[in-house]
Amino acid sequence: MGSAAFNTLVILGPTASGKTHLGVALAAELGGEILSVDSRQVYRGLDIGSGKDLTEYNVDGRAIPYHLIDIVDLDTEYNAYMYQRDFYAVFEQLTSRAILPVAVGGTGLYLDAVLQRFRMVETPENGGLRRELANYSDAALALTLRSLKPKLHNTTDLTERARMIRAIEIAIHLRDTPPPRSPDIRPLVLGTRWERSELRARILQRLKDRLDQGLIEEVAQLLDRGVRRKRLHSLGLEYRYVSEYLAGTIKNKNDLTQKLANAIGQYAKRQETWFRRMERNGTEIHWIDRGDPDTAAAVSRQLRS
What we know:
This protein is α/β, with parallel strands linked by helices. It has helices at residues 19-30, 80-95, 108-115, 127-133, 138-148, 161-176, 196-213, 215-224, 229-233, 237-247, 253-280, 293-303, and strands at residues 8-12, 32-36, 58-59, 62-63, 66-67, 100-104, 187-193, 285-289. The protein folds into two domains: 8-118 and 182-303, Rossmann fold (3-Layer(aba) Sandwich); 127-176.
């Protein structure tokens, strides 16, 4: 952490690893408020399947404030740019009142948006530029993009013509309109960690609990409201598999439970891979076995000065 104390606490980990429980406990002890880092909890109407678990935001009868939950409707295509913008706004509002932001979640893209100190900007379409680039060959587009971005990291931008044009559009916009500075976020990052067999058992039990709580009924209500099945498929595994069950593609509830639990287990492995990549790229993560609040609190006290 260096000589400066952290001004943000980040709790990450794979799904079903107890992040919310740990984050709320630490927010209560350290005088913080929760900022959800979850790509589905931003949506109104995605309650059981997204795991909002709002009853957990209470410690000894005291409600712990939370942010970035239920902020947009399902007809909004929320993205990492919007998340970074909204996170920064809440961060600055909290720190201006000397309140510790406690960011809790496992959406890797959103975590990177917060921790990488790269300010995203909204880039509008440039009709004139697009008409000009339409006359370029693919080779000329690639040459133009590399001249604008000599240290091009995302080489997939060179694989498709439309991607190259959009990448050039963004690069020119950034060149002519530099983004504002990112806020001074100095994070302490804690990760919840379980043995693989324990995590899989937690995933299965949590899924059974959510089915008992009305997950199938939640998805049926979304369909009745006119939410398209394709849209549900984009909103995560629970909504995808339950919509398939309601359509008859998955034949019974036992098959639904087993297929969905296996898919969530694979997703947890992909999350762990993302976190390892974050560490390789310089993010220091203090891993907390079984998400133990006492251990996490001790680490936080030791590093907060």
